[in-house]
Amino acid sequence: MTKKNLYVVTILMALTIMPIFYAHGETQTLTNVGFIQGNIWYSEEPFFDGDHIRIYTVLHNNSGQDITGTIVFYDNETPINSNNFSIANERVQDQWTDWQAVYGSHKISASITNAKMILPGGEEVTIVLQNSQTGVSDRFVDIDTDEDVIGNSADADDDNDGMPDTKEVSIGTNPLKQDTDEDGINDAKDTDPLIPEKPAASQTPQTTETSPEQANSILPFATHAIALIANKIETARKALLAQIERRIEHLKAEMKEQNIKKESVQPTTKKNGAEARLGTKAMLKDSGIFQYLNLYIHYALLFILKYKILFYFVLALLFYYLTRLFYRKVFRSY
């Protein structure tokens, strides 16, 4: 081999080996691999509170090497789920996670972590992806009471009983219930939708004449007021139930994220007695005891709110004790 040919071979070998040494010595930033920006879509449209849907995004790889990593889906910056992926060069790949939609505003996104390049021979090299974040999908999840595929905020008749919601609010009927007084007659067709109508078979002939004083009795007004209060309480119960369900999902997501962080933290060195006593409260908090207690309390409230009989029993019990306390404080002081 001539000296000139030896120089050429040496230069070619150096150019081949240098990228490998460069990859070992410094983390590379790649621009031709990662998310296709703004690419978040859903398994069904539209979707509403309580629906189980699938969130999708797509990855692409034109880096020249196979890429591995972890993709994390977020809802309002709270992790929903994470998936490990491996994508070959010159390929695109769908990624997804399952999610139950909850009433309220949501910012859905995804990001890539722990990205690595697979070098020839199987060695993995940590890399940084310029396109490691998707765009944010802003969604408001509404409730669809009558399941007509129109959310309550855009539906003029939420319970589909034929009476507009504005009119139901003005007269005191429940806009989320077709038969407010539960007498078997639709609110739009009921002559008095707040007072149950007696069946014809149960009506008995009256032998005495009704006086004007009896006709103008306060009973209908009292019944109307009671029905209106009951509707307000029921609406508040449903709103509080939805709020507790959202809070439970948020707490579970926080606990899952903290468990992931704890698994990645190395055990700390042993502290002396004084430091251990001072840090007892923080250690208990870090151990998750307070979080589990908080979650248990929320589940207890959810159980009470979910069952109407139990909810109204607790409400009646609370009213009884408050009335008894008021009686003792006011009347026994004289």
Automatic annotation (TrEMBL):
* Keyword terms of this UniProt record: Calcium, Membrane, Secreted, Signal, Transmembrane, Transmembrane helix
Report a single Gene Ontology molecular function.
calcium ion binding
- Residues annotated as region Disordered? 149-213
Give its localization. Answer: Secreted
UniProt key word Calcium: yes
Give the compositionally biased regions (Low complexity): 199-213
Coiled-coil spans are: none
Report the Pfam families cross-referenced here: TSP3_bac (PF18884)
Query: Which top-rank group of organisms is this from?
Result: Bacteria
Acidic residues: compositionally biased ranges: 149-162
Q: What is this protein called?
A: DUF11 domain-containing protein
Species of origin reads: Candidatus Ryanbacteria bacterium RIFCSPHIGHO2_01_45_13
